[in-house]
Amino acid sequence: MRYVGIPGKRRSKGVAPPDTAVVYLRVSTSEQAASGLGIEAQRATARVYADRKGLRIIEEFCDEGISAKNLKGRPGALAALDAVRSKRAAGLLVAKMDRLSRSVVDGASLMESARREGWALHFADLDIDTSTPAGEMAANIIISGSQYERRLISQRTRDALAAKRARGERLGAVPRLPDAVVARILAERREGRTFQAIADGLTADRISTARGRSKWFSATVRAITVSQHVGQRRAAA
């Protein structure tokens, strides 16, 4: 992960021209950071918005490969905020609201800081300028709705996992047998051996089941052969 800052001309503290803005960009994974596609798309969206609103972008800040629910872990975001708080620009522009904040607490705190300190937040994807009462209200509603949706998804996931535990179902990835063991089972079955005989042979040879158990059962062997035949038929269809 890294932070990239593209500085503009430094200004002393005072009043920034109202048509100036700094841009904040963020991608949350190293893959996105390496491709540059996420950053370029955000940059293009921000520039289109700035042109439409008559804003001059004087600095750009970027957090690449950084995922954070709050601002503390994002040096680029903190530097962008310092730029508007030190009056180098009159506004902070992001392509998408969730690039800056997904937290109701952080979002509300930022909007309150912007109002109190006299700078504007611009969300290009929503065409929102929080320096206006309507823009501030709209941003608050959207941030609250976004956090509600994430918490609802988390709750549904926890409920689903709890239900699986209650049914005794295994959680996590489904274990797989080595291909060599599957091949042996299928070969012995083609030779006419019974499921029980195959199971006894695997147990005698100390070959573990997919779940790491030492004893094999005929039902387990049968399930493997059936699943392999079904898979072969689907592949041939």
Mean pLDDT: 82
Residue share in helix: 40-55%
Level-2 CATH architecture of the largest domain: 3-Layer(aba) Sandwich
Beta-strand percentage range: 5-15%
Low-confidence stretches: none
> How many DSSP-defined strands?
6
Task: Please render the helix and strand layout as text.
Blueprint: E1 2-6, E2 20-26, H1 30-35, H2 37-53, E3 56-64, H3 75-85, E4 91-94, H4 97-100, H5 104-117, E5 120-123, E6 128-129, H6 133-166, H7 179-190, H8 195-204, H9 218-236
Parallel strand pairs: 2-3, 2-4, 4-5
Antiparallel strand pairs: 1-3, 5-6
Helix pairs in contact: 5-6, 8-9
How is this structure best described in words?
Strands 1-3-2-4-5-6 form a six-stranded mixed β-sheet, sandwiched between helices. Helix 5 runs antiparallel to helix 6 and helix 8 crosses helix 9. It folds into two domains: 149 residues, Rossmann fold, CATH 3.40.50.1390; 58 residues. By secondary structure, it is an alpha/beta fold. The protein starts with a strand and ends with a helix. The chain contains nine helices and six strands, in the order ββααβαβααββαααα. The longest helix has 34 residues. Keywords: DNA integration, DNA recombination, DNA-binding.
